[in-house]
């Protein structure tokens, strides 16, 4: 790809030109301008802060020139190539989205039939189209991840292109998973994915959001992504994020779920790819009785570097959260995990649990685990725990004494370590995630 040109900010005019070229409304143009100013004025995060202690923020500072995406199907900013119409599912409807590396789901039905049940469309088109969808985007975009959340969140807010809006209206239950696939081109230098999911009261959805592609080792690409999940009263969302970029990708992603009264949320982040990746994942329990479960699976090899931060922010009483992050490392891979449970003064009778377990398959690996509690009221129940250790030699010895070769014994131990988490993803994806894990064990 040749020598990378150092990035030089082009000023708010670049974001304005991008917005005008897509026919975006004035409110979105103003949002881009303000976000660009935030990005330009903000210094890089300080390495002495605990969330950047293990990862150099300079890894995510843009290299080369940002440029607009000129075609809807070009690169990370758009899922247009993967939106293929709609399929029925019982008395509901499902967007027919081409699966990454697999067949499409179901058969087409008319847009009119499915429009009453589910909307999956380009985020910029929804914002620019006027009407109810434009109002929906204006109301919710930036509500879960504000531009001032951090420098790279501001960059995404100023420069995102394409993006996806997923909207489920009141009382609608989408019975089969919706699968979005975002592929970074091998020659792309930058990607800015943006996803906004809105579930109204009583709605339910399972959404698989898969990110893949990009150059292999020896080349470089950068990704700055934002995922906002707005879950209305008594609504239920299962969100499965899968990251399997090429080894030339350095990616930064921020994901937040806003949970209203009685909302139910299950989030799973599976991380396998990239050379350096940092994920900030969390849920804000705003409504009384909200429940959140967040699970993570990370498998690193070679010299991959993973940095995950999770947060459960309890702002209302009788809310419940559970978190379980599992990490497997081999060769010289590195992982850093920081998990925060915050319970506000106005959130009594809340419960929160947090666990991080790290399995080291090689002597050169390293894992850091930092659980954190910030509790401002007494009437709560919280527990947390963390473990870091190698394979148990007694388990391996026991399996080998039963006639299993070493590689198969390791596969069984790692499979058992991850199985409870992988069981929470849809069946078709479960098998593919297991394949990704076991392929990395073949060289042991």
Summarize it.
This protein is an alpha/beta fold. About 20% of the residues lie in helices and about 40% in strands. A hairpin with a 2-residue loop joins strand 1 and strand 2.
User: Portion of residues in helices?
Assistant: 10-25%
Shape: globular
The tally of helices reads 9
Rg over CA atoms: 21 Å
Written as H for each helix and E for each strand, in order along the chain, the element string is: HHEEHEHHHEEEEEEEEEEEEEEEEEHHH
Low-pLDDT sequence parts: 1-9, 69-115
Q: Biggest sheet: strands, sense, closure?
A: 10 strands, mixed
Instruction: Tell me the number of structural domains.
Output: 2
What structural class is derived from the secondary structure elements? alpha/beta
User: Can you count the beta strands?
Assistant: 20
* Mean model confidence by pLDDT: 84
Strand content: 35-45%
| Distance between the first and last residues' Cα | 33 Å
Summarize the SSE layout with pairings.
Blueprint: H1 12-21, H2 26-41, E1 83-89, E2 92-97, H3 111-115, E3 119-122, H4 123-128, H5 131-140, H6 151-159, E4 164-168, E5 178-184, E6 190-191, E7 194-199, E8 204-213, E9 221-231, E10 236-245, E11 249-259, E12 264-271, E13 276-285, E14 291-300, E15 305-314, E16 320-329, E17 334-343, E18 350-360, E19 366-375, E20 380-390, H7 393-401, H8 406-422, H9 427-439
């Amino acid at each position: 790809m040749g020598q990378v040109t150092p990035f030089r900010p082009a000023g708010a005019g670049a974001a304005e030109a991008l917005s005008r070229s897509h026919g975006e409304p004035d409110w979105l143009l103003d949002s881009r301008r303000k976000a660009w100013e935030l990005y330009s004025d903000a210094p890089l995060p300080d390495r002495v802060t605990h969330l950047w202690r293990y990862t150099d923020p300079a890894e995510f500072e843009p290299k080369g020139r940002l440029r607009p995406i000129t075609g809807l199907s070009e690169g990370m900013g758009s899922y247009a190539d993967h939106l293929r119409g709609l399929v029925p599912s019982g008395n509901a409807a499902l967007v027919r989205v081409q699966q990454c590396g697999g067949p499409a789901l179901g058969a087409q039905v008319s847009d009119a039939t499915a429009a009453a049940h589910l909307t999956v469309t380009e985020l910029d088109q929804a914002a620019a189209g006027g009407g109810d969808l434009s109002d929906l985007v204006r109301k919710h975009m930036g509500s879960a991840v504000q531009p001032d959340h951090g420098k790279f969140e501001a960059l995404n807010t100023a420069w995102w292109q394409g993006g996806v809006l997923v909207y489920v209206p009141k009382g609608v239950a989408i019975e089969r998973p919706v699968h979005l696939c975002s592929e970074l081109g091998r020659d792309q230098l930058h990607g800015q994915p943006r996803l906004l999911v809105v579930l109204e009261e009583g709605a339910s959805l399972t959404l698989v959001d898969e990110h893949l592609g990009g150059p292999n080792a020896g080349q470089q690409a950068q990704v700055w992504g934002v995922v906002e999940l707005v879950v209305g009263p008594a609504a239920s969302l299962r969100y499965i994020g899968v990251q399997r970029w090429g080894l030339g990708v350095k990616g930064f992603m921020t994901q937040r779920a806003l949970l209203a009264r009685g909302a139910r949320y299950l989030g799973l982040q599976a991380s396998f790819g990239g050379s350096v990746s940092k994920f900030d994942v969390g849920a804000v329990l705003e409504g009384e009785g909200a429940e959140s479960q967040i699970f993570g699976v990370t498998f690193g090899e070679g010299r991959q570097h993973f940095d995950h931060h999770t947060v459960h922010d309890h702002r209302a009483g009788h809310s419940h959260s559970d978190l379980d992050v599992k990490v497997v490392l081999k060769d010289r891979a590195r992982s850093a995990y920081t998990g925060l449970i915050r319970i506000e003064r106005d959130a009594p009778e809340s419960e929160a649990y947090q666990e991080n377990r790290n399995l080291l398959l090689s002597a050169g690996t390293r894992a850091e685990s930092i659980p954190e509690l910030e509790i401002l009221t007494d009437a709560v129940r919280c527990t947390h725990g963390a473990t870091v250790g190698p394979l148990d030699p007694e388990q391996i010895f026991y399996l080998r004494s039963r006639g299993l070769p070493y590689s198969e014994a390791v596969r069984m131990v790692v499979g058992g370590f991850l199985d409870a988490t992988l069981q929470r993803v849809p069946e078709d994806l479960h098998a593919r995630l297991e394949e990704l894990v076991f392929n990395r064990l073949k060289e042991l």
